[in-house]
Write a structure and sequence with these properties.
It holds the Pfam family XdhC_CoxI. The protein is an alpha/beta fold and 293 residues long. Helix content is 31%, strand content 24%.
Length: 293
């Protein structure tokens, strides 16, 4: 990353704000960007940095939001309408951008999403092992209640007011709640609560996959394995600070046929009382001339 983008990425990661880091890998003349140029794309489609002109940005915005949604990196190949020879890149996503003046480009899009936040309740050896093992598995594990609802809560207090801890997690909307207890004691704790079917489905007790765990570290591993399974199944939503920005709307440029993201800076015209959106000023001006405006 360039220094400015690196600093900005650090701020966003610290604030648990999702973004996509875009890096130009290759560019052909007369593309305005050069290999190594990079930018950050936020969830509202805004771009900070430089990865090419407005036509390239339109393709990058749309692909970046898709990468953010899927959580998968993308190698984006942006080609002009009559592109010449450009080396193949297996597995890349290819976009033919009719408004490019020339110069094919490859841009690597890497989503940087907040790590799932796991709260551990209790001071048992299992709780301590969860904190130690969580980070290498890609989780932010905390003891104190975070300002945002965590993705998962593990209650490993071996007593205490476990029903109150479960109820607090349920009311906060936590997607997975693990209670460390024997089957008999776990059933007793749940019997103290009035649960709907939906709430009961969010509670796992005894917490953890059955791997024959005996030690505190092994039990913590089994619990984290269950959380990984839930995360991979998409059942651990990551809470974002404040209200998540709405995904920009999409429109089709009537001149070149490109799908563009609609935002404050997207070129457009009002035709017969309706907005018409364009990938760039060139298509907008061409449409205006054709329409006699």
């Amino acid at each position: 990353m360039t220094t400015a983008i690196d600093d900005r990425a650090g701020e966003l990661l610290a604030g648990r704000i999702p973004f996509v880091h875009a890096t130009v890998v290759r560019a052909q003349v007369p593309a305005s960007a050069r290999a190594g140029d990079d930018a950050i794309i936020l969830a509202d489609g805004s771009i900070e940095g430089f990865v090419g002109g407005q036509c390239t940005e339109s393709s990058v915005r749309a692909a970046a939001l898709g990468a953010m949604r899927d959580g998968e990196s993308v190698l984006l190949r942006v080609l002009p309408e009559n592109a010449g020879e450009f080396p193949e890149a297996p597995g890349a996503r290819v976009v033919v951008n009719p408004c490019l003046s020339g110069g094919a480009m490859e841009i690597f899009l890497q989503p940087r999403l907040p790590r799932p936040l796991v709260q551990v309740v209790g001071g048992s050896p299992i709780a301590a092992a969860l904190v130690e093992l969580g980070a290498p598995l890609g989780f932010d594990v905390v003891r104190e209640a975070p300002p945002l609802p965590p993705a998962a809560v593990v209650i490993a207090s071996h007593g205490g007011d476990e029903p109150a801890a479960i109820r607090a997690a349920l009311d906060a909307g936590v997607g997975w709640i693990g209670l460390v207890a024997s089957p008999r004691r776990g059933a007793g704790v749940l019997a103290e609560l009035t649960l709907t079917e939906e709430e009961r489905a969010r509670i796992s007790t005894p917490a953890g996959l059955d791997i024959g765990a005996r030690t505190a570290a092994e039990i913590a591993l089994s619990i984290l394995a269950e959380i990984v399974r839930e995360a991979r199944a998409g059942r651990l939503p990551v809470a974002e600070p404040g209200e998540a920005p709405a995904r920009p709307g999409e429109a089709v440029d009537p001149v070149c046929g490109m799908t563009v993201l609609v935002g404050p800076d997207t070129p457009h015209l009002v035709v017969d009382g309706e907005d018409v959106w364009f990938c760039g000023p060139g298509c907008r001006d061409r449409y205006a001339r054709t329409a006699g405006r």
